[in-house]
Amino acid sequence: MTINELSKSKRILIIRLSSLGDILLSTPLIRAIKSRFPQIEIDFVLREQYTDTLKLNPHLNKIFLYKKNNVLNKNIFDEIAANNYDLIIDLQNNLRSRKITSIAKSKVVRFDKRTFDKFLLVNFKINKLNNAPQIPVRYAQTIDDLNLDNKGIDLFTDKTANQLIIGKENLIGLCPGARHFTKRYPKEYFIQLANQLYQHGHEVVLFGGKIDKQLCNEIKNEIPFVIDLSNDDDLLQTATDMKICSTIVCNDSGLMHVASSTGTFVVALFGSTIKEFGFTPYNCNHSIFENNLLTCRPCSHIGRSSCPKKHFNCLLAIKPEAIFENILSSIIN
To answer: Domain 171-332 maps to which CATH number in 3.30.70.270, 3.40.50.2000, 1.20.58.340, 3.40.50.300?
Structure first.
């Protein structure tokens, strides 16, 4: 699809059903299309649990909420088919998204997931992704000659900050959770880092969703001075509260991309995954910590439930002291 062909479109559909970070990383593409061609109406399909990522995005015309139960999707499929889109941009590129595109019968361009290259890198450490751009840029490459601006991720929120942190200064946010074990910086290290920050005069805030609440509670029990703002996946509240922090420390997770949208300094911790996959903080002030001395990284492109080598040195080798010094340096500069 060329930029000239896109310019002739009146209405297009973008498909990215999941997950949190992937959907947020599609917002630079949405913004670029709307900025270049304001006459184009952009609709978007995503899973219903990720509604908050786009529900306030002013560049979108309509959002379709994809259900887990296919029977419940019939009305969505019927409306998509009836809209006669000039173009569908399939950023998911899997069986579910292909079902949607087959129903719509519109012109389709698909995101190249470079699945085989990821397989080679994970299993044989053959790195054909060494010079691959970040995911937002690769999304934009579905349209020839479509250039992104120099802004970051869009996440629009209408919330007000939590009363527990309004008026407080020197706030540092920690996001200790991640869906997979090999992406989670050790709890004990987060506790050590929180203690160092607190002793240096900083207030420490914990962020997380439903799956992180137990972990955040365990940290809170160990160090009662932290402010636990984990919640039941209220993404817009989390983003609003993150904006008050000067720094957010997070694993390679969806909340890393939420933090990247807020304008705060982001410290990202990469364990079993690596930068080459393209999911690093996008167009924001950040630092990345990873152990590049290991030959076993990456052991997965999404994360694992345990370390296959049993040592977990990808994250255990990254000491809290180094992160603490990096935070202090970023604040001074």
So the answer is: 3.40.50.2000
